[in-house]
Amino acid sequence: MMTVSLKNLRKTFADGTDAVKNIDLDIEQGEFITLLGPSGCGKTTTLRLIAGLEEPTSGEIYINGRQVNDVDPGNRDIAMVFQSYALYPHMTALQNMTLNLTVAGLTKEEANKKALETARTLGLEDLLNKKPGKLSGGQRQRVALGRAMVRDPVCYLMDEPLSNLDLKLREAMRTELKRIHKKDKVTTVYVTHDQAEALILSDRVTVMNEGEIQQVGNPVEIYGNPINEFVAEFIGSPSINLINADIVEGKTSIGENLVFKNAVQAPNGPITLGIRPEDIVLQDSQTDGLKGNIEFTEPQGGVIHAFVKLEHSERYLKNRDYLVVSMDVHESVNIGATVGIRFREDRTNYFDTKTGQSVETRR
């Protein structure tokens, strides 16, 4: 059963801006799905359309099989969690969590009982009598999450709820969200611009750009089989290497260098190779094939990124000046050294040079 369905949904603002362009999306019951993309891609507008905070220009919105285009936000059986917490500063954590319940007609005792059960799940029992000003950012966000949970909605809508937290708190709250979702299995639509957050939390990721859905898939599919160059570049850090290449009789070459001997299912002519930094192997410079010089490195914890200058890099590399290679920090890397370069053939993506669409994905 689908909890949320969007049918040919469009939102055009008064100034003529098309924020959401005829998107279709089905979200299954119990699914955690992320709307991911850069600023201005339409992800937050889509969430606000589901919530009823924006009216669609055209298209249909269904929640639990009921069309809700003309239904007020408070009657859509959803609960929202915002980036800004949106807690009442003059109320205690308990009062913030129970307010909507008492408004809905529950007695104070019934509301407190539900809030206490949720507080135990979130580890908030000792904080219920404190006001937001006495709570840390992570604690305030847990109270905001608890306020949504006590309502027992059919769907949570979360708009970048962790973006105001520092790195350590974000990691802790991601773990908390995973744990809660595994336990309660409430359908969750989660907006973020943070790709790591999306890949960690989601059952499926919806990548958006310029008001359109680019690709929907599980995190492994999105990372390993991007449908176009935009998705390939947006997902992954460091981003994917995009390289101008040619296919002749099924063999792939970069300039004079034969990269892959095995035939690929693509017509002869120019092609764009997409290869992630961790799928490149540096080897002895005496080996045949592509070569380059290690210009500098960037250690990042257990990984080191080597920036390799190819001969005629400007001719071959589409999105950067250096080929980026990721490896274990303990591997030997000599700055200034000339190295051979080997791509893992089974991890290479092919894109049409004109459209940017995937031609053949080999992973």
Describe this protein's structure.
There is one protein chain. The protein is of the alpha+beta class and 363 residues long. It folds into two domains: 2-229, P-loop containing nucleotide triphosphate hydrolases (Rossmann fold), CATH 3.40.50.300; 230-352, OB fold (Dihydrolipoamide Acetyltransferase, E2P). Helices cover 25% and strands 35% of the residues. It has nine helices and 21 strands. The chain has helices at residues 43-51, 93-103, 108-122, 137-149, 167-184, 195-201, 219-224, 229-234, 313-316; strands at residues 2-12, 18-28, 32-36, 58-63, 66-67, 78-82, 155-159, 187-192, 204-209, 212-217, 241-248, 251-254, 257-260, 269-275, 280-283, 291-300, 303-310, 323-328, 338-343, 349-351, 358-361. The strands form four sheets. It has a six-stranded mixed beta sheet, with helices on both faces. Strands 13-12-11-14-20-21 form a six-stranded antiparallel beta sheet. The longest helix has 18 residues, at 167-184. The protein is elongated, with a radius of gyration of 25 Å. The model has no long low-confidence stretch (mean pLDDT 91).
